[in-house]
């Protein structure tokens, strides 16, 4: 298992509100949603290489 790292980001309030609304609607955590988005990026990156 790889070591987990902490990431701190700054985003505009409007984007945070959107993320929180999505998390509430889907009953998911912000961490879970962001991890999924990063994994989707990994798929896109590997397709373009």
UniProtKB/TrEMBL annotation:
Q: Which Pfam families match?
A: RHH_1
Q: Which residues form the Ribbon-helix-helix protein CopG domain?
A: 6-42
GO term, biological process aspect, one: regulation of DNA-templated transcription
Q: Which N-terminal stretch is annotated as signal sequence?
A: none
In terms of domain of life, where is this protein from?
Bacteria
Which InterPro entries does this UniProt record tie to the protein? Arc_rbn_hlx_hlx, CopG, Ribbon_hlx_hlx
Q: What is this protein called?
A: CopG family transcriptional regulator
Q: Which organism is it from?
A: Gloeocapsopsis dulcis AAB1 = 1H9
């Amino acid at each position: 298992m790889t070591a987990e790292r902490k990431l701190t980001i700054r985003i505009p309030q409007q984007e945070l509100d959107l993320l929180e609304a999505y998390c509430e609607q889907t009953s998911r955590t912000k961490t879970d949603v962001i991890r999924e988005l990063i994994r989707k990026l990994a798929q896109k990156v590997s397709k373009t290489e």
